[in-house]
Amino acid sequence: MQDLALESLKFIDLNFMSVSFLFIVGFIGGLVSGFIGSGGAFVLTPGMMSLGVPGTVAVASNMCHKFPKAMVGAYKRFKYGQVDLKLGLILAVSAGVGVQAGIQIQHFVLDKWGEAGSNLYVSLSFVAILVVVGGYVFYDAWKTARTGGVEKVTKLALKLQSINLPPMIYFKTANVRISLWFTVPVGFATGLLAATIAVGGFIGVPGMIYVLGASSLISSATELVIAFAMGLGGSINWALHGMIDIRLTLIILGGSLLGVQLGAIGTTYVKEHVIKVVMGSIMLLVAVSRGLAIPKYLNQLGLISMNEGSIGILGKISFIVMCISLAVGAIIILGSMWKARRPVPAMEESYVKA
Amino acid sequence: MDIQDIKNDVCGSEERRKILVVGEEGFLSESVMDYAILVAGRLGYDILALNTVSEEKLKSISSVKTGSDRAFNISELHSCALFKAKAASGMVKCDCLVRAGGPGETAKKIIHEIKRIEFVITGPDATKEKIAEKVTIPVFSVLSNNNMRGEKTMGEEITKKKPLGKTIGYGVVTAALYAAVFTNADTVTSYFTRGSWYAALPIATVFIFSFAHGAFASNLWSLLGIEAVSKDVKVVTAEKTVHDDVRATKSARKRPRARAYINPFHRI
After folding, report:
1. Cα gap A117→A22, rounded to integer Å
2. Are the beta carbons of A265 and B221 separated by less than 8 Å?
3. B45 domain residue, yes or no
4. For chain A, percent helix, then strand, then coil, each to nearest 5?
5. Which of B177, B195, B206, B187 is nearest to A10 (CA)?
6. Best residue of B78, B146, B193 to probe chain A, by most A CBs closer than 10 Å
7. Count of domains for chain B
8. Domain of B15?
9. CA distance between the termini of chain A
10. pLDDT by residue (tens digit) across B8-52?
11. Is the domain of B138 the same as that of B119?
12. CATH code for the domain in which residue B54 is found
């Protein structure tokens, strides 16, 4: 396995196009994850693979750029007082367990139904989770926007917070007092999803918002702590196998560290529901993208029959939709930052007058 | 200091006028403190700081057993100690109280128990509304736009220097690091992919790069004028309080404004 990696690493020719592609996707991915706590990985891994990088090396190099990016983003947002470190670390522990469980499930599916079955399982999980959670996040964002941008804590979170099941933990920054036992499923699901579709934040952030009752600002910032912890663990594991192509990692990191800081700054410009808008839109578009990939795996499993040409086209559309989802996220973030630039001086002026 | 001591204190000498400064959940922003000290200094008033916290939190910050009615001093509470220190430097007498319960009820009790409290100063609007509902003396709220360490004045904003030197410095370091890796790409990849203890190499490398490049990126955005709008930690929780209590706030807002500023039972 190690030799295979070495072999493939030597043969990846980095030309201007591939470097620019990785840098730009890294930047946009960083921007999105600085803003919503996760994202970018779902485009980078298939993107790198389309450049000819073997799947495992793509995953490993991607993960190795993810944790320093998350660290820089978390540090930046910690300075803005948005990170609940205690919540992040507690969730990271259960997320670690979730990752292991996710890997076991993957192995089980791989053994039972082969690679196509495993891919189908991943795509179906993507579509099912992203449509349900993404749809709800989007609906909630729309509802919040209509009621003047005031976020409400969900009834579920209030109910769970009122249950006095020791040990009760008070999370100061999130201003939430909840039993440890209710944080465990959120962390576990985050890890499980991270091991399955590489983006744990799609469940971690909504989990923190709707189950634990933290605000979307705090949740998205705290997710970066979880991403850092999971990414560091995963990267060490990949590094031990010698799978990390440091060149790819550093190019992506070059873009993403610029992006993640801009995204973190962006959170201070916008109303909280914009985070949900961005997250919901990305999740729904990614769901569409993965949905388009499903026929390919069904075909491989012999459940449907399609010709190679149309499967190829579907695959391409799927990848394009994925890139669009990231671009849409970036446009919403930059757009709302641009819009929010103007009222600020006016507000400061009124302070001066007062 | 116990509430009784404060009473004795004021009975013993000439009763001085006081400003009641109310913090919610043990938090009192520095801008509120500074403003209160400034006003107290100008008017020659004393300050009585009241921190209201929930029952559970009160137990966790103090080992002293307490009933909800008994107030006591805990100078170890950060904001209280800070307030006292600030007040001392401003030559203003300041006493601290911590009480369990909501700001409205506790402020009302204190105003009844301690004489010559002229008006109330507090932080977020939500707390102000809660107090204004219960008391008949003026309640003022001071909006904070400070970061955690406090002290972000307008002057600083304006005269803030653009970090040109830092950006260039970190930029050069980052460029050198990238150049070092990519000019020796073959050697680097062959060592970095050996596994076992060599696994530390890629991990250490990304850490070094993220420090250098992260600092460069941060300074670059500042240089380009893209900076965070507000760094106030407590704005977040304060907003949350408003959200939690959105109905109460709304109904409170419907009340005539003048009510908070009329004081028919004022004891002079």
Report:
1. 29
2. yes
3. yes
4. 80, 0, 15
5. B187
6. B193
7. 2
8. 3-145+233-252
9. 68
10. 554 445 678 889 888 877 677 778 888 888 888 888 888 888 888
11. yes
12. 3.40.50.620
